Amino acid sequence: MLDCAGKLLDLSHPQVMGILNVTPDSFSDGGLFLAKDKAVAQARQMVADGASIIDVGGESTRPGAAIVPVEQEIERVVPVIEALRSELDVVISIDSSKPDVMRAAVEAGANLINDVQALRVEGALQAAVDLAVPVCLMHAQGTPQTMQNDPRYDDVVTEVTDFLLERVNVCEQAGIARNQLILDPGFGFGKRAVHNLRLMKHLDKLIEQGFPVLVGVSRKSIIGALLNVSTEQRLAGSLSLATIAVWQGAKIIRTHDVRETKQAIALCDYVMQVKDFD
């Protein structure tokens, strides 16, 4: 069980994290849920469809995305989090790298931090220590503004794993317990298609480190590049990659398409859990 500030998340079975972007420019659903009532309705539907986590983000992290001022990001996420907290019995995560946004979000009711910069922004590590909620540490080479310019690795699997374990060490030294940490290899964040494929093929190497692993591949550009399909046609590819990840041991799948993903990974889990002999 992962204790998310009093809300327990059962990681003995794979869980679904529903993406709720309250932004005008996210790559797949930008602008759709910028209004609070639409965001709350979408979260309500995702929970009904099987999401156990709602991941609220107020700044796009797509390649080339513009930086959002702290005050504007807070204005986007806090009213939504407050509304969700008052209505839904679900884990709420804040998708942000900014310490002031983390603090405001947790005060509003968020109980998990999802940071694409793995607490490297000045003040973020201390904020996570003070807030005492679980943290998802993600690998990214560069920033959203630069990460796809020319990503290079000698051994992407080893480098991503080593980076995340180094961040774990930093967190532990600062006072964050190991059992409060989740790792995310960061598919699409400063990685070419071949890097993403290698990470997926050898995801078990990261899972072997003993931490819950979160995977976010929903509608990402690798699917479009390899299958030559638009963003709206990437559901099948997203489900395929999510199932491969769960088969290797991923515990949380971050997705735009909750109902379909929940069904796909549930069937995968049934196969994995069935006994060979009665």
Q: How are the secondary structure elements laid out?
A:
Blueprint (H helix, E strand, L loop, with lengths): L1 E3 L2 E3 L5 E7 L14 H14 L3 E5 L12 H18 L3 E5 L3 H10 L3 E4 L8 H8 L3 E4 L17 H19 L6 E4 L8 H9 L1 H5 L6 E3 L4 H7 L7 H14 L3 E4 L2 H16 L5
Parallel strand pairs: 3-4, 3-10, 4-5, 5-6, 6-7, 7-8, 9-10
Antiparallel strand pairs: 1-2
Helix pairs in contact: 1-2, 1-10, 2-3, 3-4, 9-10
Any overview of this molecule?
The protein is built from 10 helices and 10 strands. It has 278 residues and is α/β, with parallel strands linked by helices. The protein has a single domain (2-268), classed as Dihydropteroate synthase-like (TIM Barrel), CATH 3.20.20. The strands form 2 sheets. It has an 8-stranded parallel sheet. A two-stranded antiparallel ribbon has the order 1-2. It is globular and about 50 Å long.
Beta-strand percentage range: 15-25%
CATH architecture: Alpha-Beta Barrel
Helix run count: 10
Helical content, roughly? 40-55%
Main sheet strand line-up: 8-7-6-5-4-3-10-9
User: What top-tier CATH class fits best?
Assistant: Alpha Beta
Annotation, overall tally of beta strands: 10
Low-confidence stretches: none
Could you please say which CATH topology applies here?
TIM Barrel
Mean pLDDT score, rounded? 91
Order of helices and strands: EEEHEHEHEHEHEHHEHHEH
Please tell me how large the radius of gyration is. 17 Å
Spell out the CATH superfamily.
Answer: Dihydropteroate synthase-like
**Helical/strand content category:** alpha/beta
Main sheet, how many strands, which sense, barrel? Answer: 8 strands, parallel
Query: Any idea how many domains?
Result: 1
